[in-house]
Design brief:
The chain is built from nine helices and three strands, in the order αααβαααβαβαα. It is mainly alpha-helical. The chain has one domain.
Length: 196
């Protein structure tokens, strides 16, 4: 409900596209391919940022938890994905939200963050996906030092980039990619200025 409840007209003229939408679409259509063996045998756990999931659900009626897991399952085998408890819409904030990471609330941020640190450590995962920059910084720069969080922290797009299969394209594949790009730009209302 949130913003769309009070300002529905503001959301009618454009289509909001998240990184989750884009990566899922690219994987589904084969526009990008990833090598699942890149992270083979490594346990991963998923942090669910408040803004991307719970706040998106409240504001736009759309959370991206299924899309997030769809992408992760292209990178990891099911047995290597270790969920934190609780997770999903009941997940725990990392403590850096609401501007706390950028503000002088270090004690409060760390006090709250200890819950997330304990939750991460309980998974025993070697890798952690934290799609939000505030969450990533909090976990990587603060919780790892204060509470011995040893999981290596990645953005979602960074994990995808690490596993990308990069092969030379034929002229036909390049042409098809340009057509898909142009269709996507038209669908999403993106206008690119041509260089002169």
């Amino acid at each position: 409900m949130g913003f769309t409840k009070w300002f529905p007209e503001a959301f009618e003229e454009f289509r909001c596209v998240s990184i989750y939408d884009v990566l899922k679409e690219y994987l589904e259509t084969g526009r990008i391919k990833v090598d699942k063996s890149k992270f083979a045998g490594k346990k991963v756990t998923l942090h669910e940022p408040c803004n991307y999931f719970r706040k998106s659900q409240m504001s736009f009626g759309q959370h991206y938890m299924e899309e997030y897991r769809y992408i992760i399952k292209h990178l990891f085998n099911d047995e290597d994905i270790v969920e934190m408890e609780p997770h999903g819409l009941n997940g725990i904030c990392c403590g850096a939200g609401g501007g706390a990471w950028a503000m002088p609330y270090t004690k409060e941020r760390l006090d709250y963050g200890k819950w997330k640190a304990d939750q991460i450590n309980a998974t025993g995962a070697e890798l952690l996906c934290a799609p939000c920059h505030n969450c990533r910084d909090q976990i990587m720069k603060a919780l790892s030092k204060e509470f011995n969080v040893t999981a290596r922290v990645f953005y979602l797009w960074e994990m995808v980039a690490e596993a990308l299969i990069i092969e030379p394209w034929s002229e036909e594949e390049v042409k098809k990619a340009h057509e898909e790009r142009d269709a996507q730009y038209e669908r999403d209302g993106v206008e690119i200025e041509e260089e002169e």
